[in-house]
Amino acid sequence: MSQRIQFQRPDGASVSGHLAEAAEPLGAVVVIQEWWGVNDQIRGVAERFASAGFTALVPDLYRGKSTVEAEEAEHLKGDLDFADAAAQDIRGALLHLKALGLGSGKVGITGYCMGGALTWLAAQQSPEADAAVVWYGMPPLKAIDAARLKLPVQAHWATQDEFFAIDQVDALEARLKEAGASYEGHRYLARHAFANETAQGAGRIPQTQYDAAWAQQAWDRAMRFFGQHLG
């Protein structure tokens, strides 16, 4: 069952989100949108998590706005306060799910592209989180304090990604290793957004390309990871 809900941020403000409920939840996951907003595709991702046994909540970071145009998405992303979104909207969604006490009571964070970058920020600001899975996204390296990552993190990277170059990933992984972070990284011979089924056909952004085989392998790895740490 899916529905739009309201939940509270740590500062007391109210924000909406899309909740997809698992019939018999093992745990729960906060799912963070791409730069397009909370659209049918990301709602479908939440419902896929629910079908796999993890109740999922997508916080509406753009406050009801979404787009299919890259230029407008760039404006929406540019107007977003990333620090506030990570510390308030995403952590608020996490705390809301924690309070529900679903299954094991454990809650993870996952996000795609822009949502992947926000996953890193939220993971180091949310001590209540139990695990995180990042999909091809990261903030500027200086924004990641690896010593504050106290939870296990899995990440999926595309070696042909033009938005998040693989040499940036190399630098990030070196920092995580130096800090002794619990980290598991996977690389795919793919382009950006390889797990987004809408990134195909004439309407896709040229730098993106869905790859069904890699998407399935990454999903299976994410499910095993969340099963291990949230179940």
Order of helices and strands: EEEHEHHEHEEHEH
Which structural class should the secondary elements be placed in? alpha/beta
Could you estimate the helical fraction of the residues in percent?
Answer: 25-40%
Mean pLDDT: 96
Would you identify the regions where 5 or more consecutive residues have pLDDT less than 50?
none
Largest sheet: 8 strands, mixed
Describe this structure in words.
The chain has 231 residues and is α/β, with parallel strands linked by helices. 37% of the residues lie in helices and 21% in strands. It contains 6 helices and 8 strands; from the N terminus they run βββαβααβαββαβα. It has helices at residues 40-51, 70-79, 82-100, 114-125, 166-179, 212-230; strands at residues 2-8, 14-20, 27-32, 54-59, 107-112, 131-135, 153-158, 183-188. An 8-stranded mixed beta sheet has the order 1-2-4-3-5-6-7-8, with helices on both faces. The longest helix has 19 residues, at 82-100.
Short description:
The chain has 231 residues and is an alpha/beta fold. The protein is 37% helix and 21% strand.
Any key phrases for this structure?
8-stranded mixed sheet; alpha/beta; 231 residues
